[in-house]
Amino acid sequence: MERLHSALGVLNSYLWGPPMLVLLFGTHLVLTFRLAFIQRYLPLAIRLSLRTGAEAEGDVSHFGALTTALAATIGTGNIVGVATAVSLGGPGAVLWMWLTGVFGIATKYAEALLSVKYRIRTESGAMAGGPMYVLERGLNARWAGVLFAVFTAVAAFGIGNMVQANAVASMAAEITSDGRAAWVVGAVLMLLTGLTILGGIRSIARVCEVLVPFMAAFYVLGCLLILAVGYRSLPATLALIVRMAFDPGAAAGGFLGGVIAGAARYGIARGLFSNESGLGSAPIVAAAARTRNPVRQALVSSTGTFWDTVVVCAMTGLVIVNSGHWKEGVQGVALARQAFAQLHDIGPLILNAGLAIFVFSTILGWSYYGEKAVEYLFGSRAVLPYRVLWVCAVMAGSVTALPLVWEFADAANALMAIPNLASLLLLNGVIVAETRKYLWSGRIEEEDTERRA
């Protein structure tokens, strides 16, 4: 097992090394250029996200699809991932993470557009879509679709289930100094997960429509409160973040001939890990949305990257850098705890409650991703056994040490991204054509104006 863990660590150092980061961020830039800075339509996209789309074909509303995707993406990466980026890459990593979110909006838009365009209706009458269907129907490469589905199913049990459950169960055991707390947390998580996911995407979406806005507002308001306490140092913190983002000496390491420093490396990596733009996960639920055309849901899906990275991750980064504890060599979750402890009892409450809710929502969102991947591979008969196995895995993850699972999940995530990014680049002409047909022609804005009237 130790040899396998070591081998996976070496594999991940390549999979998540500079070439992957350049490919991901490069795709963000290419699609931003090809789509004439699609980010400028963000206000329209936010308005569309509140539409029900009741008259259109699909399983859940625009908002339900968006909140389910956000449930999966807003997780431990928004807290622990940001803290890790700052501890390894310095304060400048926060700016690079933010920029990754801004440009990643174009990629999230593109992958959602293709997933809706190439989605199908299954034998049970439900919608099914995602990169596997894009690869099969858009590029006539079913073999690549199969590979993507396999990697998704593996990654789902790791990053979307067991490691999430383990994070909150370990936190409970540490706070109470009682190992039995992990079993209690595991049992509660297992029960709540089972009650939610056994009802399918409609049940998941209903829970996420309530849970996600609450958890995001609670966490962001908590961060703003902490920043208000330390407001005097905030201007200097912002200046430090900008300065160290472009200072080659800001952190150790770097790539692209040293032009981009370690701050960029860790900021981009954690930003991509947090918002999942380019990984191909969020488009799976986007394909279930009730929408009259692919562009409407693509715009709605693109706001997920904005909320996840440009807002939530930025708040975490500001709190951590403004605290000054990053200078003390503290890393990961310990750094986040010290930063939030500035507000005495309230800060730890915000951190612990935020982490617990983020974990539960991630388990819900990724359950649907894994379910649709398994359905693509084995048909609808595999869905119910998969849901039962998923619920059991929550308990297993809560009470088991999982370093090997983390490594498996990281590798599977990277392997998901490769075929998905290939489809985005190869089908960028289709993406532009659909955008021209529905968005640049003014058709969607006219529909939105009519509805408000």
List keywords for this structure.
453 residues; mainly alpha
Give a written overview of the molecule:
There is one protein chain. The chain is an all-alpha fold. Helix content is 76%, strand content 2%. It has 20 helices and four strands. It has helices at 2-15, 18-34, 42-48, 62-73, 80-89, 92-117, 131-138, 142-176, 180-197, 200-229, 234-245, 262-275, 282-286, 294-323, 332-340, 346-378, 383-398, 403-426, 428-440, 443-452, and strands spanning 120-121, 127-128, 254-255, 260-261. The strands form two sheets. The protein has a two-stranded antiparallel sheet. The chain has a two-stranded antiparallel ribbon with strand order 3-4. Helix 4 (62-73) runs parallel beside helix 14 and helix 8 (142-176) packs across helix 9. It starts with a helix and ends with a helix. The model is unreliable at 250-261 (pLDDT under 50).
Secondary-structure element order, N to C: HHHHHHEEHHHHHEEHHHHHHHHH
Rg to the nearest angstrom?
Answer: 21 Å
Query: Structural class of the helices, strands and pairings?
Result: mainly alpha
- Roughly how much helix do the residues carry, as a percent range? over 70%
Query: How far from one another are the termini?
Result: 63 Å
The proportion of strand residues reads under 5%
Number of H/I helices: 20
Number of strands: 4
What are the SSEs and their pairings?
Elements (H helix, E strand, L loop, with lengths): L1 H14 L2 H17 L7 H7 L13 H12 L6 H10 L2 H26 L2 E2 L5 E2 L2 H8 L3 H35 L3 H18 L2 H30 L4 H12 L8 E2 L4 E2 H14 L6 H5 L7 H30 L8 H9 L5 H33 L4 H16 L4 H24 L1 H13 L2 H10 L1
Antiparallel strand pairs: 1-2, 3-4
Helix pairs in contact: 1-18, 2-6, 2-12, 2-18, 3-14, 4-10, 4-14, 4-16, 5-12, 5-15, 6-7, 6-11, 6-12, 6-14, 7-8, 8-9, 8-16, 8-17, 8-18, 9-16, 9-17, 10-14, 10-16, 14-15, 15-16, 16-17
